[in-house]
Design brief:
- It is built from 14 helices and 14 strands.
- With 405 residues, it is α/β, with parallel strands linked by helices.
- It folds into 2 domains: 153 residues, Alpha-Beta Complex (Aspartate Aminotransferase, domain 1), CATH 3.90.1150; 239 residues, Type I PLP-dependent aspartate aminotransferase-like (Major domain) (Aspartate Aminotransferase, domain 2).
- The strands form 4 sheets. Strands 2-8-7-6-5-3-4 form a 7-stranded mixed β-sheet, sandwiched between helices. A 3-stranded antiparallel β-sheet has the order 9-12-11.
- Strand 3, helix 6 and strand 4 form a beta-alpha-beta unit.
- Helix 3 packs antiparallel against helix 11, helix 4 runs parallel beside helix 11 and helix 5 packs across helix 6.
- The radius of gyration is 22 Å and the shape is globular.
- The termini are far apart.
Length: 405
Amino acid sequence: MSLSLIARSITESPTLKLNETADKLRQKGEPVIHLGGGEPKSRAPIDALVAGAGLLSSGEIRYTPPDGISALKKAVVQYTEEHYGRLMSPDNVMASSGAKQAIMVAMQAVLNPQDEVVYPAPYWVSYPEMAKLCGAIGIPVVAEDGGFQPTLADMEDRIGAATKMVILNSPNNPSGYSYSREFVAGVVELCEKRGLYLIMDDIYHRLLFDGRRPISVYELAKDQSDGSKLIVVNGVSKMYAMTGFRIGWAVANKKLIEAMTNIQGHQTSGPSALLQYAAAAALTGIQSGVESLRLTLENNRNVLLERLQAFDGVRVTVPHGTFYSFPDFHAYEKDSVKLANFLLDKVRVVVVPGKDFGMEGHVRISYCGTIKDITTGLERIRWALDPNAPNELYIGQRKLVRDWL
């Protein structure tokens, strides 16, 4: 089969591949614990379910405008004013089939072949592949100290004549790290000075812990005109536990939104009407579920950190938000793909290799599941790796004894 150069350059999503492998093992009756997932286990808001059910029962589910229904665009305007302190127009909003599509369409509207997109490491696995789909080049910026936030000097050093766009994701997938206000402000200033587009991937922005508050990038920007190159992307997947609804949005200047809408119109003709009405209801309905989820995740994080501290040699930076941690397992295995495969094979625990997030030796461990999953999963991982762990482990009815340490 003769495939395009782009098709041959795109790699499979490691997260989706692990999900597939875990599902196959579960279907065989294997007691798999999935600590690599990226979706909360709480239920979608009742307002969203009622709105979706109401439209479904009417039978009137039709095409929508390619940039989204009026109700959703108005809800995003209201959300932006409430949580970012910026009053926008519906013409500044494009709804999409998930925040991922919003980012992809923004890239397609801006990037030319060989343009560069700069983002800090660790980064979401899709950023480099999305850049490739545009014929562009992803440029990760790694902190010299091995941490999760590079310096502004590091960022500036990687920005060159071919750079067209910068992406920030804070709090960050996979680390849960939230960039400091000073760092975000510096990046905003740098992008404005260089005339670069800046995508703020804010999909986790309200899932913050320890009293931290979301940063409104609009408060940091000097350019408040409608010609601003700032693009804020968000969605209902994470905060409202509506991953399967696949509704996100972008807020940007009107001309860019118009260009993005033209592209999206030829791709998908716009998001599903049913799911847009549900998303609008989630944004305008009762909001207590977001805080309930945030509190649950913060408690889960604390349990995870307590269990990780029992490992000898594992280094972990405290996650500031999201539902991910990104511990460093170099002391046990430097090859994160090898480590992830070993854990799945030996103890049926799914983690995501750090290599795909731009930092080898780390793995992403999610804590959006149950406390039992977290504690049992980490007990299995410790048994598989730590010489100081008990020598025996039960997985279901099977008794395992270590013979490889």
